[in-house]
Amino acid sequence: MIIEQIYTGCLAQGAYYIESNGEAAIIDPLRETAPYIQKAERAGAKIKYVFETHFHADFVSGHLDLAKKTGATIVYGPQAKTAYPVHHATDGERFTVGAITIKVLHTPGHTFESTTYLLIDEAGKDHAIFTGDTLFIGDVGRPDLAIKGKLTERDLAGMLYDSLQTKIMTLADDVIVYPAHGAGSACGKNMSKETTDTLGNQKRFNYALRAKSKAEFVEKVLDGLTTAPAYFAENARLNKEGYESIDQVMQRGSNALSPAAFEAAVNETGALVLDVREAADFAKGFVPNAINIGLNGQFAPWVGALIPDLKQPIALVTPEGQESETVLRLARVGYDACIGFLQGGMDSWKQAGKEIDTVTSVSADEFAGQHRQNPAITVVDVRKPDEFKSGYVANAENFPLDNLNDYMAELPHNEPIYVHCAGGYRSMIANSILKARGFDNVVNVEGGIAAIQKAGIPLETKKSVNQ
Question: In this predicted model, what pLDDT tens digit does every residue of 9-21 receive, in sequence order?
Fold first, then answer.
């Protein structure tokens, strides 16, 4: 028996490859099919099933393409209604993969169809559970994403409590927990950096599993939930209704465009120019009105949070050699309308004599000098509210990046706006958005709040924050 976790840091997502005696199963695959197919081919195994724990909201799953290419059966748990053929499993149903068994445990709460898959080994022993978003390491799934009709998030949280108590907590302590996500995912609020653990440890240390009553569980799980990213509902819809083949998406997005063709295509389609280079490179020169979301950070979640329309045409500026990677990472969260990329990157754009914009950057020491000279300068902190509460520059405004567009009217056009975050990734995204909205006097503070504090600016902690 082989169990392999295939973890993707950008999405903090774990997919699983399971193999036994020439048969394989995939649980919660990402949209690219090659990694799973290649693993099975190398082992001489046939992919028999694709198990989905629920309709994922934070990424587009690869189940449809994977099933078409391998002949595998897509399996969902109870209450999953799809627009394409699947096997609708019943609670307690068993599937054989080689010499092992996969048992269906219907665990509603995160969503109605949420299902945990219990792996029973060759000896008939409960070995592991693949919990999807029902149980994480250190947390449980948020119960506010599948609200419908008269049901509230409290009702779903109560369902989740019952599922955990009756289906999960009754299992042995040595059962291994394999969740769908880890720290950094917006599907929970308190996930560990660890991506697997024993159930016994989770019973002892997971705050949600230690609740002494349903009422206590509901209060703890709902406390501190932030607004779900805007793209979640659309990704869940795509996973439920179906989507375009990843091969077609990749072919369309891999269209190399000369500077002239790139400019013409952007003007003709109204495409958003998305520049995925590192912040420092972007600041030195970029296509006017381009938005910078670097591949080196939490790229896909920020794309999902900041580009509201999944059908928005996108034209890419990437480091050379990372064009296909970028198209794929966009497709993972449902952004399939990429029309191509700037061939030769920014070097070719410059060589063609095209217009270039820049972002002024200052070191934390330079910013500290400006702030001491004039504490009333406009400072925008784009970190999350809880980050801001932990320490901020005097007179700074907290305009979280997720909601930056809501605060445009409060910003001056005729004086410098100093923008910072924790380390520089989010502040450059914010600067690019502000530039595209006509704020020409933005200044990026390099190194973020940590560098600012080292530069000698004392931080305050009492100001109310924007939610």
Answer: 989 999 999 999 9
Quick one: how far is CA 188 from the chain centroid?
11
The domain 2-233 is placed in CATH, from the list 3.40.50.11260, 3.60.15.10, 3.40.710.10, 3.10.350.10, at 3.60.15.10
Q: Would the pLDDT of 170 be above 60?
A: yes
**Long-range contacts for 398-402 (Cβ within 8 Å, ≥24 apart)?**
398/463, 398/465, 398/466, 399/430, 399/466, 400/466, 401/302, 401/305, 401/306, 401/426, 401/429, 401/430, 402/227, 402/229, 402/305, 402/306
CATH number 3.30.70.330 is the correct assignment for the domain at 246-351: no
Extract the tokens encoding 220.
């703890």
Token output for 260: 């002239």
Distances (CA, A) of 427 to 383, 401, 445: 9, 8, 8
pLDDT digits (tens, 9 = 90+) for 44-82: 999 999 999 999 999 999 999 999 999 999 999 999 999
Tell me the CATH architecture of domain 360-460: 3-Layer(aba) Sandwich (3.40)
Assess whether pLDDT exceeds 70 at residue 465: no
d(CA 80, CA 86) in angstroms, rounded, equals: 9
